[in-house]
Amino acid sequence: MEEKIKSLLEEIKGFSINNADEAEKFRLKYLSKKGIIASLFEEFKALSPEQRKSTGKLLNELKQATELKLDEAKEGISTQSKASTDSLLDLSLPADPLTIGTRHPISIVKKQMNDIFTRIGFVVSDGPEIEDDWHNFGALNFPADHPARDMQDTFFIESKGDEKWLLRTHTSSVQIRVMETQEPPIRIIAPGRVYRNETISARAHCQFHMVEGLYVDENVSFADLKQTLYYFVKEMFGENIEIRFRPSFFPFTEPSAEMDITCLVCGGEGCPVCKHSGWVEILGCGMVHPNVLENCKIDSTRYTGFAFGIGVERITMLKFRVNDLRLFFENDMRFLSQFKQAL
Ligand code: DAH
Fold this sequence. Notes:
This protein folds into 2 domains: 2-88; 105-342, BirA Bifunctional Protein, domain 2, CATH 3.30.930. It is built from 12 helices and 10 strands. It has helices at residues 2-14, 20-31, 36-45, 49-86, 105-119, 133-136, 172-181, 222-237, 290-295, 312-320, 327-330, 333-336, and strands spanning 123-124, 130-132, 156-157, 165-167, 186-195, 207-217, 243-250, 253-262, 279-288, 304-311. The protein is elongated, with a radius of gyration of 40 Å. The site of 3,4-dihydroxyphenylalanine has 11 residues, from strand 9 and strand 10.
C-alpha cells in the first residue's frame, strides 16, 4: 500500500491544473468522498496495527499535499483571471464627467435678501411652518370672521380638541413669536416657506417663500420704512429702478401699503407678468398696529414699528426674468442648471 501511495503522490505532483474545470476534475478524482484518497483511507482501516503506523503517516502526507496543490492552483487561476480583466482597462479613456450641483434660484435670491438686510442691522429669525391660529391670525389682529381663515386660503391640519393648527399662510407669524420673547429694539427678518390653498398657475402656487421684516423701537416712522425698502430695491435691482407705494389694507398694520416696482420682464412696456400695467407688486408693508404690539405685551404708547412681507418668488422672477412660477417647483435640471453663474 505504501508503494501505491508513493506513486500516487508522483501522479498528483504531475497533474496539471490550468483552469477551473481542471481544478474541479482534480478535486473529484482525488479529494471527493468517492475519490482515490477516500478509498485509500477505507483500505487503511483493514491494516494491522504495526502497518498502520507508517502507512498512516504517509497517507496523511498525501492528503495534505493534494489539498495544498488544489489550493495553490485555485489561487493561481483567480489571479490569472483578474490580470486578464485588468488588461482590458484602458487608462487613457476620458473619466466620467463629474456633475456639480447648482443652487436653486430661490435659495440664491433668499441669500441675497438676507445679505442686504443684515448689512443694515437686521437679524435673521425663524419660526415653525406648522402654526397655531393665534400666531398666524389672532395675535396679528385678524378678526374671528376674517375671510383669510377660510378653508379656501388656509390649509388647516386635523387636530383634536379646540386648538386649531394650520400651515402658516405668511411669515408674519414669526413677528409675533419674536415680540413675545424679545424686548424692543427689535430688528429682524424672517425668511421662510408659506402655504396657501390656491390653484396652481403661472402666477400662483400652493407653496412659496416670503421674507418678513420687523423693526420696533421708539420713534420708528413710515419714513424709516420707505427708506429701508428703497435701499433694499436699489441693492437688489440697481439704481435705475422705479418704485411706487399704494395705500392698502392689512389687519396687522395701520396705515398699510403695497409697493410696486417697474416690471423688469418687459421694462415697463406691459406683459403678462405685470398684467400689462408696467408695474409689479413685490411686497406689503405698514406701521405695526398698536393691537399687535399689545397682544405681545409691548407698550404701544412708547414703541412704534414697521413691518413688511416680500414674496421671494416674485423677486426671483423679476431678477432672472422667469415668467412661470411653476418652474421653481418642478426641479427640472434643464431649468436649474441655468443659474450656475449666479452663484
Ligand atoms: N403677510 C402679508 C401677506 O401674506 C404680507 C405683509 C403685508 C407682511 C404687510 C407685513 C406687512 O409685515 O406689514 O401677504
